[in-house]
Amino acid sequence: MTLVHVLRECPDALRADLRRVYGLDLDDLETGRLRVGACADLVANLPAGSMTWRRLDVAAAWTPVEYMLAVQVDQMNMWMWGNADPKKRGSKPKPLPRPGRGHAASRDDGTTGSDGREHRVRAIGVQPMTLGEFSRWRAQRFEDARVEESRPLAGNT
Predict the structure, then answer these.
(1) Mean of the per-residue pLDDT values for the chain?
(2) Cα(150)–Cα(157) distance, rounded to whole angstroms?
(3) What is the 3-state secondary structure (H, E, C) of the chain?
(4) Chain centroid to CA 71
(5) Measured at the alpha carbon of residue 63, what is the angle toward residues 49 and 137, in degrees to the nearest 5?
(6) Of residues 136 and 108, which shows the higher confidence score?
(7) pLDDT in tens, 48-92
(8) Domain spans, the chain
């Protein structure tokens, strides 16, 4: 994603994010106090959940916490559906929509973007579980064993 694309699609969200995250103004780019390359680096590394990512509907539009909450809602819907009377429960519940799905549908094989580069997509599937299993799962302590950066590197803008 290029700086030009972001400036064309959502300049107001970018202006707000630059002020909120970095304390900079987009006008600094026009006056020459902020170099274009530096601005592109800052935009490429906006944190997950930024207004810019939400407006562009990319996977980084949600924070990890929002993804985990959506998984919990999906799990609870599956649990309620699975424990309902099979004659009355209706069709299987659909998972909540996630951001960035509109862009993935336009790819040829789901892994190559329009720029020709490969994109890794991590999907969290729905797994039915009992309420006791869900309570034990929520009570456990989670730690990051491995951290992978999902945003593009500064030189790839």
Answers:
(1) 79
(2) 14
(3) CCHHHHHHHCHHHHHHHHHHHHCCCCHHHHHCCCCHHHHHHHHHCCCCCCHHHHHHCCHHHCCHHHHHHHHHHHHHHHHHHHHCCCCCCCCCCCCCCCCCHHHHCCCCCCCECCCCCECCCCCCCCCCCCHHHHHHHHHCCCCCCCCCCCCCCHHHC
(4) 13
(5) 165
(6) 136
(7) 999 999 999 999 999 999 999 999 999 999 999 999 888 888 899
(8) 3-59, 62-141
Judged against a pLDDT cut of 70, whether residue 47 lies above it is answered with yes
Task: Calculate ∠ Cα 62-20-100, nearest 5°.
Answer: 20
CA 124, 127, 130, 132 torsion-angle sign = negative
Secondary structure letter of residue 21 according to DSSP: I
